[in-house]
Write a structure and sequence with these properties.
The structure holds 2 protein chains of 2 kinds.
Chain A (H helix, E strand, L loop, with lengths): L2 E3 L13 E3 L5 H11 L4 H4 L10 E5 L2 E2 L15 E6 L2 E2 L2
Parallel strand pairs in A: 1-5
Antiparallel strand pairs in A: 1-2, 3-4, 3-5
Chain B lengths: L1 E3 L1 H14 L5 E6 L1 E2 L2 E4 L1 E5 L11 E2 L2 H13 L3 E10 L7 H5 L6 E8 L2 E10 L6 E4 L1 E2 L4
Parallel strand pairs in B: 1-4, 1-11, 7-8
Antiparallel strand pairs in B: 2-5, 2-7, 3-4, 8-9, 9-10
The chains are: A alpha+beta, B alpha/beta.
């Protein structure tokens, strides 16, 4: 099963675990499995339209899924999915 | 509240002064115990904003992934992000807010004429419409 690394502030919504193993053949299915198992995670990752929030990037191993097949990117048993925020700013 | 230890603080201020008059950015790592976040390690990261860095900063997601991995490797948490405001106050600007992430603390260092002046920490909300000020303790406070 692929595993999803949970960022520190979101672990409170995942039974305090830092890693969650999920089923799913694609990144989209894996994230859906995560939010089904841990519903409070959903509002942190997805907006009301069900799209990933603007500040959320998803990586499969070391690759941003936007440059792969997005949520249709295939995942396998040894894969690691990371949730990485977009952060910028200025005065 | 967020407490920044001496070694991490020195690195943050040094990074902000070195990049002056441009904005700097980096990650803060350490333990979180209840409501207290303690910054033990500061990781200076590159400002990847392609335009005028005097007024903007941008973190590469890859660098944040690296910071998250460093935290895990050392049994710590990624607590937040720091950046500098050269020659202006340590407020949380509209640009900061709209490009923030509500999961983390955002420490802003005001650097005036190349020297540290003051700092504040901010906690943006989920909709990125407002940020609450967080109690901040640092060695220069």
């Amino acid at each position: 099963m692929p595993k999803i690394l949970i960022p520190t502030p979101l672990r409170q919504f995942a039974d305090k675990r830092d890693t969650v193993e999920v089923s799913g053949a694609t990144v989209g299915e894996a994230l859906a499995a995560l939010t089904t198992a841990h519903p409070d995670m959903k509002k942190n990752l997805f907006n009301d339209e069900g799209k990933l929030r603007s500040f959320v990037n998803v990586y499969l191993n070391d690759e941003d899924i936007r440059f792969l097949e997005k949520d249709k990117t295939a995942v396998g048993a040894g894969d690691t999915i990371s949730i990485v925020p977009s952060i910028a700013g200025g005065r | 509240m967020i407490k920044i230890e001496q070694e991490a603080w020195d690195l943050m201020v040094a990074h902000a002064r070195k990049t002056y008059p441009n904005e700097c950015c980096g990650a803060m790592l350490g333990p979180i115990d209840g409501g207290t976040k303690t910054v033990r390690v500061a990781l200076p990261l590159e400002n990847a904003y392609p335009g005028a860095q005097r007024e903007r900063y941008e973190l590469r997601p890859e660098d944040l992934l690296y910071a998250e991995r460093e935290a895990r490797k050392n049994g710590m948490d990624l607590i937040g992000i720091f950046h500098s405001h050269p020659d202006c106050d340590a407020y949380f600007s509209k640009t900061d807010l709209e490009n923030s992430c509500p999961w983390y603390s955002f420490v802003v260092l005001s650097i005036q004429k190349g020297q540290f002046h003051h700092a504040n920490s901010w906690l943006p909300n989920m909709e990125q419409t407002e940020a609450a000020q967080e109690e901040l303790e640092h060695p220069n406070a």
